[in-house]
Amino acid sequence: MKITLKNWLTLLVLSLVWGSSFILIKKGLNSFTPYQLGSLRVVFAGIMLLPTAFINRKQFPRKNYPWLILCAVVGSFIPMFLFPVAEMHLDSSIAGIMNALMSIFVIVLGAVFFKYKTNYGELTGVTLAFIGVILLLQNSSTEGGTTNHLWFYYTILIIAAMMYAFSGLLTQKYMGNISPLTWTAFIELVLFLPALLTLYLSGFFEVLAHNDNAWEGVGYIFVLSLFGSVLANIFYYKLIGETSASFASSVSLLMPIVAFMWGLLDGENLGLIQISGGVLIIAGLYFGRKNIKIKYPFRKNRKGTLSKR
To answer: What DSSP line would sit under 136-155, residue for residue?
Structure first.
């Protein structure tokens, strides 16, 4: 697999776009509930991509429908709600750092479900990231202890990151020769009606009619959908097709930095322990990309005794 300059630039742009998604979610939550925000995001994406799905409807192999549906539900629909629910109680910068675990889960799930080989670098990365998550779960306002009611929201962020990773691995295996635009369009087509029904049942239109600030929230969600869902997903799936799910998930290396900077600009603060946890997660992602081989100073000779190399 050859990584080109174009691939690195795509990775950088994705990091900036997806790293900014968390602050847009936070702004959208000022006007809407997590369920209204998540469903509206999917509906906007569906409206933008439905013509593409219709035009290319004959290009999609029927044998790939089950994997497409699974990828749509696991990689788009459920996380669209999990992140807003968590950000009702956690800072957007925390959500950005937790999402960095996606890259670690690509390594773990790839080894477990897709028989990808692991190395010592990846094992080191997983260990560092796990310690980082434990530190990140510490709430500085509770004197080093984790507030019990926040555990649930940290957990759903971990689940969302795991879902993103699994979806990326599915895409790598089953997207095949389907163009990234067509794959993204069909994902949004699958989710459009469920999202529209959820939007209606959530009371979105009542909020839109009676909340004077609602249209500002719609603007934030539209930008989130256009860049964070439609364009970013197209380039993400394209990056997977040109490289691998493992390299594409490296976007999570830079996303926490972008999310953290947006959080600072919006008045968010992280404690020293939490910052240390975020650094360990990023360090884990770095080592997870290294193929570390351990050289032993001694080896067994034919007689079964130890001798120096």
So the answer is: HT--GGGTTSPPGGGHHHHH
